[in-house]
User: Which sequence fits this backbone?
């Protein structure tokens, strides 16, 4: 090593400052994501109460490319989320997303709702077979579902059937719940059948 | 280090599955306590070690994220997406092989497609196969082969044909039905295939060749790129595809056959005979290695690979030796007192030294970055975009628009084609990724939103695979918004939607190009630029012989781009009394130009009447889209289709055997035969389930770890500079 003392120090300084920048940026990312998820839900609760009967609820914020399709309630009201239309990454950052290709809540077929395991759908971890999940559609109709099955599915091999003979609900999130990074192949699927 | 983490986490995985554990790796006390101590010890030795450790830590956290991946080995190191599908579909007993054979002469090809349905299961089945054909195909024959016998199909009104088929199906008789879903998408249904039995369905169609400058080509589509279905699902379903019907695509469930990764189950054989009146300079298959055998005027072409996977369109292209190729061709067919004519005429070439006006252009590049574009398609599109950017002149303006589920623009409005702007655009293009839906409407609206300033000619290059289910709505949108702009489509990928490309370009008064391999990006784009940049031939008029009443298509010949021929199909009534001349005239940059063709010189071409009828049906379908009443159009289409034995939106071919074969006690299982995933595409990007983790916790943890390391390095820096430097030296 032919570096002088001064040079070595400045090298260290650069390393320390870049580590600081990187560290704070990562921390920021890690806090911004849940914060956004929470604030968006607050905004949407407001948009929801504005919705009129039979009319598509207004977008939760003027530039939003998604809109609420249902209100999801579980755990005797402890959990309450506005479900948005579509399953794009942008939508899921703000709330659970109803996949447009799947049946609408309350209709025959499988209504598939996806959510992030580390924000909105964290609660799925504590859901047990037999528990009730309620969905209210914008026209004010409520549907009660009963959890019938909980599966862990390898998404590279498994698949979700959309055209079921009865109205069912599938809540899907990533698995395992506590993995640090995103992008794993496993999915946690909570299936529920409609009671009314 | 990373292995231990992964192993520990797998155990944890099992516990979570029982729903009993509440273990959080990021707050586990003993690790949290131990880790700094280990780090501190090592950090004292050298700051270099500390940095190595920080890298290892981030690696380890990445490892934790995917313990399942770690255990399945490096071959499968990709994040999966849950596939969404319909009940029926994947494990089917029906095996299919396809045999395509074609006879090409003059300007047309008669193609025979044999679909062999083999029931490998132990139950009786009804096989349903949704398959692609060229978008101008005139399907006029169906034959159902059962062993040595065959039954000729009849053309009927759609509902009537369906009823007859269903009745035969219920009665246990063998029956088959060929229906049209789109101009380039058809469905074959075959009822009552016995266990172990093979039924061969033979379909024939006529098609006109593509002519560009003096190059001829013909395309044989073999699979369907999964269509994106916009809209909200509506109750009930008409078919058994993977999509539900929606308010925007009411027949979505009929046009979304299951898709399978390439298998050897579906076999393809292919042979073509080409009769050429003039010697050819070359004949080639663009995407598949092929054998060509010449016997005098006849060329026989087949594929080298005997079991070619059905995952890529086949295209043959050929060109006559320069100066031998005729610049005009006329074929006629006379049925009673009606003469049908198919005419192709190449206007004089626009040469390089022609005075060029060089109107400043506003070039808008739209690129489809939806899931079906993922893989090789996106690479082809990026290549095409880069070439388009390179071709800009400093006086031009431009913009880049990309769309998937949402539309986004590079510049808020078009900018000058300066070196910096082009460089910015190139960086943008090279960073594009493909996923999500294909919401085309917004992108087209955005491109045509503001009208360009007077001195600019707006040209839109639309690069897409066209895999959408709402084609008609998009054609109407383009027609309505076009104004003075021109829209050119570039069809990308192994199996682009050819009907979308041709009709969208027609609505946009432009041309269409296909790019299905990376190596042809340059060739095809250069040809497109030549068309875009050179002056057009305008005011094309066709004068038919006096005394004949003529119905010709297209009704008005649009302005031609460089290399494009005048292509007309006509029906002349009482033409015998009028053996005159057909005169074609137009305005070329060099002045007025005209050519004469004596009707009597027309060579006899069988099937020219069918091609005329097909063009008439397309014209009527266009009128329907333009708002004509269905009560008026429908009977006209049915009349033409029945007269020429053609499958159309309102007519189907049906073949029914006389004797019932399936015992009443046996059930009939309905099976959808899948299409093969087009070459270079990814299932996950198309049917994939959204990613459902943000990784926020991982960010926080690695943020903390990095900050902690920064502290350590600071400490080392302050306390032990000499110690470290000695060690380092």
Assistant:
């Amino acid at each position: 090593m032919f570096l002088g003392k001064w040079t070595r120090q400045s090298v260290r300084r650069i390393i320390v400052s870049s580590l600081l920048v990187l560290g704070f940026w990562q921390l920021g990312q890690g806090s911004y994501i849940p914060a956004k998820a929470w604030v968006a839900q607050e905004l949407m609760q407001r948009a929801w109460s504005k919705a009129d009967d039979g009319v598509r609820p207004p977008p939760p914020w003027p530039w939003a490319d998604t809109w609420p399709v249902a209100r999801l309630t579980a755990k005797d009201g402890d959990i309450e989320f506005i479900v948005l239309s579509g399953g794009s990454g942008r939508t899921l950052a703000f709330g659970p997303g109803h996949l447009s290709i799947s049946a609408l809540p309350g209709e025959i077929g499988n209504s598939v709702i996806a959510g992030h395991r580390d924000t909105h759908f964290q609660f799925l971890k504590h859901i047990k077979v037999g528990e009730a999940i309620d969905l209210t559609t914008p026209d004010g109709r409520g549907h009660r579902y009963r959890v019938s099955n909980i599966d862990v599915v390898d998404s590279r091999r498994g698949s979700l059937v959309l055209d079921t003979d009865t109205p069912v609900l599938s809540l899907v999130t990533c698995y395992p719940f506590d993995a640090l990074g995103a992008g794993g192949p496993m999915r946690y699927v909570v299936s529920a059948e409609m009671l009314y | 280090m990373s292995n231990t983490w992964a192993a520990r986490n797998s155990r944890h995985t099992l516990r979570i599955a029982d729903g009993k554990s509440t273990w959080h790796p990021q707050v586990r006390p003993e690790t949290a306590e131990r880790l700094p101590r280990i780090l501190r010890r090592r950090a004292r030795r050298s700051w270099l070690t500390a940095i190595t450790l920080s890298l290892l830590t981030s690696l380890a956290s990445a490892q934790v994220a995917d313990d399942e991946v770690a255990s399945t080995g490096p071959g499968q190191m990709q994040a999966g997406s849950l596939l969404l599908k319909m009940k029926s579909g994947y494990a089917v007993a029906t095996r299919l092989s396809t045999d395509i054979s074609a006879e090409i002469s003059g300007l047309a090809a008669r193609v025979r497609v044999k679909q062999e349905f083999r029931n490998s299961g132990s139950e009786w089945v009804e096989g349903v196969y949704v398959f692609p054909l060229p978008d101008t195909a005139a399907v006029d024959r169906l034959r159902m082969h059962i062993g040595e016998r065959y039954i000729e199909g009849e053309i009927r009104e759609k509902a009537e044909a369906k009823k007859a088929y269903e009745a035969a199906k219920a009665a246990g008789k063998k029956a088959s039905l060929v229906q049209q879903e789109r101009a380039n998408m058809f469905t074959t249904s075959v009822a009552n295939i016995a266990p172990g039995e093979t039924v061969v369905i033979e379909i024939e169609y006529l098609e006109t060749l593509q002519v560009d400058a003096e190059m001829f080509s013909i395309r044989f589509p073999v699979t369907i790129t999964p269509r994106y279905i916009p809209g909200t699902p509506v109750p009930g379903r008409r078919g058994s595809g993977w999509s539900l019907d929606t308010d925007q695509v009411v027949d979505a469930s009929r046009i979304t056959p299951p898709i399978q990764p390439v298998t050897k189950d579906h076999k393809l054989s292919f042979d073509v005979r080409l009769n050429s009146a003039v010697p050819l300079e070359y004949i080639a298959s663009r995407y598949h290695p092929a054998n060509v055998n010449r016997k005098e005027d006849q060329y026989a072409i087949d594929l080298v690979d005997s079991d070619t996977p059905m995952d890529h369109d086949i295209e043959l292209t050929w060109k006559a030796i320069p100066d031998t190729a005729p610049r005009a061709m006329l074929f006629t067919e006379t049925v009673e007192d009606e003469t049908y004519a198919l005419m192709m005429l190449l206007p004089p070439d626009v040469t390089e030294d022609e005075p060029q006006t060089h109107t400043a252009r506003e070039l808008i590049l739209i690129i489809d970055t939806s899931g079906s574009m993922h893989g090789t398609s996106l690479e082809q599109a990026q290549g095409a975009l880069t070439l388009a950017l390179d071709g800009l002149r400093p006086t031009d303006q431009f913009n880049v628009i990309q769309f998937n589920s949402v539309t986004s623009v590079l510049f808020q409005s078009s900018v000058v084609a300066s070196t910096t702007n082009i460089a910015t655009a190139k960086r943008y293009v090279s960073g594009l990724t493909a996923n999500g839906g294909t919401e085309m409407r917004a992108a087209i609206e955005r491109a045509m939103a503001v009208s360009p300033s007077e001195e600019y000619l707006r040209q839109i290059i639309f690069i897409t695979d066209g895999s959408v289910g709402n084609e008609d709505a998009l054609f109407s949108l383009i027609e309505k918004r076009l104004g003075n702009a021109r829209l050119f489509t570039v069809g990308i990928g192994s199996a682009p939607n050819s009907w979308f490309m041709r009709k969208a370009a027609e609505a946009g008064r432009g041309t269409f190009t296909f790019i299905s391999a990376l190596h042809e990006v340059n060739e095809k784009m250069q040809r497109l630029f030549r068309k875009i940049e050179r002056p057009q031939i305008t005011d094309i008029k066709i004068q038919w012989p006096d005394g004949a009443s003529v119905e010709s298509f297209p009704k008005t010949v649009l302005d031609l781009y460089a290399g494009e021929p005048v292509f007309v199909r006509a029906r002349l009534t009482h033409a015998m009394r009028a053996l005159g001349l057909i005169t074609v005239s137009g305005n070329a940059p060099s002045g007025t130009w005209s050519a004469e063709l004596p009707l009597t010189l027309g060579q006899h071409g069988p099937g020219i009447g069918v091609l005329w009828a097909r063009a008439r049906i397309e014209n009527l379908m266009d009128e329907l889209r333009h708002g004509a009443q269905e009560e008026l159009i429908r009977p006209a289409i049915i009349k033409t289709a029945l007269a020429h034995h053609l499958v159309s939106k309102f007519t189907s071919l049906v073949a029914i055997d006389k004797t019932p074969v399936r015992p009443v006690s046996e059930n009939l299982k309905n099976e959808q035969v899948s299409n093969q995933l087009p070459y270079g595409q990814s299932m996950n990007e198309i049917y994939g389930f959204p990613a459902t983790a943000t990784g926020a916790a991982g960010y926080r943890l690695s943020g903390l770890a990095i900050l902690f390391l920064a502290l350590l390095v600071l400490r080392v820096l302050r306390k032990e500079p000499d110690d470290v430097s000695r060690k380092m030296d």
Strands of chain A lie at 68-74, 79-85, 97-98, 109-114, 132-136, 142-154, 159-161, 167-175, 186-194. Chain A has one domain: 30-194. The helical segments of chain A are 5-50, 89-92. The two ends of chain A are 76 Å apart (CA to CA).
